[in-house]
Design a protein that fits this description.
heterodimer, A: 357 residues, mainly beta, Methylamine Dehydrogenase, Chain H, four-stranded antiparallel sheet, 1 helix, B: 87 residues, alpha+beta, Ubiquitin-like (UB roll), two-stranded antiparallel sheet, 2 helices, 7 strands
Chain lengths: 357, 87
């Protein structure tokens, strides 16, 4: 029987939550990674390895890896550094993408490092040099709060040379050739602030893919849909309580179904009215419905960060989100009902899900 | 031989690393290079490119704040401290 594995990155290490295919009863293991702040933990379905992007204030940034589903861990930062003459500095490893032993690591100052040996050694792949906006983004003073730099990397399903990267506060970029060349993919997005470049200056929080042509994104100002893999975007915010949020998930079997967690756009960045709610569209964003069954509805001032929601690939998918106050909520029926499966973890940065044999 | 004291945050990261050991080196940087030779990866945990000591890694030689080029006497005590950081 397959095992369902949640990989949870927190401010005080990584945790693994395990269940079977029913996804009703869960066990918690951790903390791992010696309590280092973990910004993103992922599972490589091809090798079975787990990777965690972590940054210790004492000992710097590194990628932790486990080849035995969390029983033992090692770390490496070999090669994750800019040449001192560049004036650039790696302050943090923010995000990961892993496939068949190839690991891409997004860092701040914005850049992507690559490992071809399962996370033992890394080399600089790209800094997106020459892209609009790049002339300013190396300056830490220009980085948005959080200082994520490259805040997400999304691999193509079939083409290993193609992937998308988000530069925090700048926008989405696509490469067709393994990072050698890039194109901004932000047409149609909204911004409520002046932008020095036509193609960039957008605050993209989360990018998800639904099928061969459709993507969705949660932006600082609105949710958006693309039907041409990000070349153009259409806003789909109407019907939601706020335009702001971080996390998003696309249904693995139904391109019309997409989930977001709208938050107060001000300083609070918590769920409106203190009611924990995931919002779902089943028609590509034309309408939205609130999913609240089993979620706390009084005094629940919960925040969910950009990598902290995930959806699995069972026939009836399970949906999961972790909060910045340490709770993990799970649904084994596409969001129709929810239960709290962990209550007292450290502040959660990321949640990913894997199905393992 | 310098009497080198290491922080407890390092020992889980390197198999067999003790909290205290004796190292023959002329400078603080020499101590770190010797540690790197015995436990590869150690330099990255203590230094940034340059190299420079990481911001929150403080080194004291005979109770005086030190840098990588601080010289050591044969009987120096070297304390490597993971300085107070975060909550």
């Amino acid at each position: 029987m397959p095992k369902t594995l949640l990989l949870v990155g927190t401010r005080k290490g990584a945790f693994l939550l395990e269940s079977d295919a029913d996804r009703r009863d869960w066990t918690v293991r951790g903390p791992f990674c010696e309590g280092w702040p973990v910004y993103h933990a992922v599972h490589d379905a091809g090798t079975g390895d787990i990777y965690a992007a972590a940054a210790s204030e004492w000992h710097g940034s590194a990628v932790w890896r486990s080849k035995d589903l969390g029983a033992t861990w090692t770390l490496s930062s070999e090669g994750i550094a800019y040449d001192e003459s560049s004036g650039r500095k790696v302050s943090k490893v923010s995000t990961l993408a892993a496939k068949n032993g190839r690991v891409l690591v997004g860092v701040e100052a914005p850049g992507i490092f690559e490992s071809r040996d399962g996370g033992e050694t890394f080399s600089l792949l790209t800094t997106l040099t020459g892209q609009p906006g790049s002339e300013a983004w190396d300056d830490p003073g220009n980085q948005p709060p959080g200082h994520l730099g490259i805040s997400a990397i999304m691999l193509d399903r079939d083409d290993d040379a193609r992937f998308w990267a988000i530069v925090q506060g700048v926008g989405v970029f696509e490469t067709p050739d393994g990072g050698q060349s890039w194109t901004p993919r932000n047409r149609g997005l909204r911004s409520d602030w002046p932008r020095p470049h036509e193609e960039v200056g957008f605050c993209v929080h989360k990018l998800v893919r639904a099928d061969d042509s459709r993507m969705y994104q949660q932006n600082h100002v609105g949710m958006h849909r693309s039907d041409d893999l990000g070349q153009t975007w259409t806003e789909i915010t109407e019907g939601l309580p706020t335009e702001f949020g971080f996390a998003a998930a696309a249904h693995p079997h139904d391109r019309e179904t997409f989930y977001v967690v709208p938050l107060d756009p001000g300083h609070g960045r918590t769920m409106p009215e203190g009611r924990a709610t995931v919002w779902q569209t089943q028609d590509g964003g034309s309408s939205w419905r609130a999913l609240r069954n089993g979620l706390p509805q009084e005094d629940a001032w919960l925040g969910v960060l950009r990598e902290a929601m995930a959806i699995d690939t069972y026939d009836v998918p399970g949906l999961y989100f972790g909060t910045s106050t340490g709770q993990v909520f799970a649904s084994n029926d596409e969001g129709e009902s929810w239960s709290e499966i962990a209550s007292y973890l450290p502040a959660i940065s990321s949640v990913e899900v894997a199905i393992v044999d | 031989m310098a009497d080198v004291h290491l922080p407890g945050t390092l020992t889980p990261l390197f198999a067999g690393l003790p909290r205290r050991l004796e190292i023959e080196a002329a400078t603080v940087g020499g101590v770190i290079e010797e540690l790197e030779g015995r436990w590869p990866g150690m330099r990255d945990r203590l230094c940034e490119p340059g190299p420079h000591l990481r911001t929150h890694i403080h080194v004291y030689v005979d109770r005086e704040r030190a840098r990588l080029d601080t010289p050591l006497d044969p009987r120096s005590r070297v304390d490597v401290i993971a300085a107070i950081s975060g909550g």
